[in-house]
Design a protein that fits this description.
4 copies of one chain form a homotetramer. With about 280 residues, the first copy, chain A, is an alpha/beta fold. The first copy, chain A, folds into 2 domains: about 80 residues, Alpha-Beta Plaits (2-Layer Sandwich), CATH 3.30.70; about 190 residues, 3-Layer(aba) Sandwich (Rossmann fold), CATH 3.40.50. The first copy, chain A, contains 9 helices and 13 strands. Chain A has a 7-stranded mixed beta sheet with strand order 7-6-5-8-9-10-11. The first copy, chain A, starts with a strand and ends with a strand. Chains B and D meet through strand 11 and strand 13 of B and strand 11 and strand 13 of D. Chains A, B, C, D: InterPro entries: ACT-like_dom_sf, ACT_dom, Formyl-FH4-Hydrolase_C, Formyl_transf_N, Formyl_transf_N_sf, PurU, PurU_ACT. Chains A, B, C, D: Pathway: Purine metabolism; IMP biosynthesis via de novo pathway; formate from 10-formyl-5,6,7,8-tetrahydrofolate: step 1/1. Chains A, B, C, D: Belongs to the PurU family. Chains A, B, C, D: Its EC number is 3.5.1.10.
């Protein structure tokens, strides 16, 4: 049995659900999951569908060609088809904080994540021992003002040579370049340590402390050119009080950051996230 | 345009999604919502679908007859079809607590609930003024050991004469009879003031206090013959500490009870709840 | 037995806790509650203390005079002493939304709030029937561009003649004047329908929808001259998804608003909130 | 400067707060933290106090002797005094699950925990590499039916020779013996993977799935002789739905377990937990 995941969006129009399900049936596919959403404000239709085919006769490439020339053309679909067999490849960019790293690698080790991690990249050497202890290749790519462009070239080369599908900035602490963003649109996941859009930019816990909020948060989102303004994948919060110092907020925030980032990784790797007009549709 | 909601469940089997969507299309229906779930443990397929038809030519009764003799028979479906036009009728059973009552009636008044409340029934007169202030008929049906059966007969007569679709026990504080449960299976919603299955039965806040829990909860569920053991619709919790007295737990719990019960009412009234084998599938 | 609540803050300094507790003991008081907080950033000490005295010999006024001329002078205290006997008087300002109003009055009726509501004031007549059904005097003070100042004068007169201690804006939807804010500093509680500082100003649910956040919130805070920037008393949030329309966010938000506002009212009425430098210390 | 933490409980009685604070002042101590609680049901007074003394002249032993012969005797206090300098020593008992272990060691490494971990003990060898990578001594003490008593003796010897203050069962999966419980009363912290008292005993996620709950939880508590019935330190929950399989519940639960257990460890190590009559008072 071969399983595919289909993601589509298009202008909302009649008969689209029936047409797609019919197409699968007439190609001997058995739909095992279907979910859909209509954005009434923008009149956009979204659908996620999982379908099983007999491995002996099914060809993913032929199927894609057929789908493209028929349904995709008829309904002017924006579409993606993934084979369940192929695990997405994720590059992990880190700096000096280890809490997200431990959380991700712990889950990776236990088989909770359906993905591969071909390498970990950092601008510092501090966390190399952790990468080593999990037996994952570690690349040290320092970033300074003068070497920024070289570093970027090295990053791109690594990403390409490892066929990376998406990048996770696990508290990477560096602004990634437009070139990288353009090459990996809605494929670079960041964790920001505030409930966006509150406290954009640097030192959000300090700002939260100063404002005297009773709730702190963390937000995972896709990186876009505007700082901390990309499509939000997942957010969570924790209650705090006047008794919490900035250091306490940072400690409590770490727990949010690691869970929120790992959840976003899982959603993305399982092809459950669609992006349209800087917002996400999440079929969970 | 006439909109229907279809709820089905059956043994999981190939091609069911395509067959149902195809049926709708071939009857000139346009599917505007579809969601499905497969219980892999029990091998049961569940689906909720909303479909629009041209009011000029669509007949709900003819459609039901056709559906029943074709798809329903072919796949051995357990099915229900509701017209979106017809708001369900809800009877509200109360006793002396007013917090759930105010919450429900406030929402009802503001148009948040898609249902009708033909009457409120209570075994006490205390809350009649509230019913009056919202202009909803109030029936006083006292329940004592000796009059229990008469009271039940009066309840049944009221429910039938008002064509009641479902009953909400908004802290009614009385055990309802088997006769009532049999006549309204999975149609009597109760709010229990604990996170079930913890603290079944009377005085759960007292038990929670005694056990020293750090979290209290509330659970809305359908009434079945076994006490507090029916299918759970919605639950929520709140954090508490050693500083909370039993009175504090009761006060904090009231906020949970009213929100959880109102959410359950909305889900049921919008036909988003399916029950199978004492568990719910909730398409939200 | 007469119970007082003492709130103090001052520059942090040695021996202050022992001195205050000693003062109470040497005046035949028995401390039944004590909590304190030190803001290490600003080096400010905060304390809340409840103390019981023998009613036969205790005079609140004498006690205040003595406290003022001794401890308060010695430690340069900013202090307030309340008698537990005197319930604070709260004026309720409303407009056309009824969810917070019902929630507050339901709690008031059931004895959950330790305060008095001498009157409800609104710029519209829509909710007068609710005030009537709870037997609370209702004043209609319309506010238009031309009558704004007169309206304010009328408000002030009503507040003074009823000895109002604090004001609650239960979705009042009008910007209150500087005069009012100056007369009731940190005594006007507002409910803002977002998790501040995100989405300051009008239509926060529309902004939240547009940004695609996965969490919405509500914030109760004291009104200051800067819009939505006053000291935060309480916040809460709810998870949302792409399936929620703006209308859904508004409905879900109503549940947050009413609970968060009522909690803030309780904290303020129980003298558990201290304000310093635009932040709150909450002894709960 | 030397800082001590004092924990006391006793029958509630007048003047106790003033007497204790006075005692500290008259011994040249400066109170920097005080919190108290009265359990009105049981008439028990609890207090936690932090006090600073001049290191040059302060002797902890002399202070304890004086405190014991005066205040402790006068008020019949149950008391403990800890020096802030001495970090508590924690033994970590594990089995085959690594998520709690990674979480604890990650925090330990980053300096978030104020404690020492002299050793990790397990009945299996699987997780030894993790202990090694964090450079913490690992003892393999297998437990079988026939070797149970020997194993227990070995455990006790290790605990004593390392001067262990408290034990954490990080998903240890073995029932610990009465002997161990007696030697470490309210000093063995367990993590149970349900919101107790729901789903006591084995396989709580399976039971939760079967009951169809909409919320799962985790509970950290002190081990007592009755299974899963000891004093609760911390609990947290997560919302789930019909879409979650047992495997999903287990994965989601792991996130709860690790955060809840680590929080309990922090509270205990910071001497913020008091136990009385199978319930906890937590001064946070």
């Amino acid at each position: 049995m071969q399983k595919i995941t289909l993601l589509i969006h298009c202008e909302d129009q009649p008969n689209i659900i029936a047409s797609v399900t019919n197409f699968m049936a007439s190609n001997d596919g058995n739909i095992v999951y279907i979910d859909q959403h209509v954005d009434r404000e923008q009149n956009i239709f979204f659908m996620r569908l999982e379908c099983e085919f007999d491995s002996d006769i099914f060809s993913l490439e032929d199927f894609k060609t057929l789908f493209n020339s028929t349904l995709a053309e008829q309904f002017k679909l924006d579409w993606k088809i993934f084979s369940a067999e192929r695990k997405p490849k994720m590059a992990l960019f880190i700096s000096k904080y280890d809490h997200c790293l431990y959380d991700i690698l712990g889950r990776y080790n236990s088989g909770e994540l359906h993905l591969e991690i071909p390498f970990i990249l950092s601008n510092h050497l501090d966390l190399k021992p952790i990468a080593d202890s999990f037996n994952i290749p570690f690349y040290h790519v320092p970033v300074t003002k003068t070497t920024k462009q070289e570093a970027e070239q090295e990053q791109l080369k690594l990403l390409e040579s490892h066929n990376i599908d998406f990048i996770v900035l696990a508290r990477y602490m560096q602004i990634v370049s437009e070139t990288l963003i353009d090459k990996y649109p809605n494929k670079i996941i960041n964790i920001h340590h505030s409930f966006l859009p509150a406290f954009v930019g640097a030192k959000p816990y300090h700002s939260a402390y100063k404002r005297g909020v009773k709730i702190i948060g963390a937000t995972s989102h896709y990186i876009t050119e505007e700082l901390d303004a990309g499509p939000i994948i997942e957010q969570d919060v924790a209650h705090v009080s006047h008794t919490h110092s900035i250091k306490d907020l940072i400690a409590k925030g770490r727990d949010l950051e690691k869970i929120v980032l790992s959840n976003a990784i899982k959603l993305h790797a399982d092809r459950k996230v669609m992006v349209f007009n800087n917002k996400t549709v999440i079929f969970s």
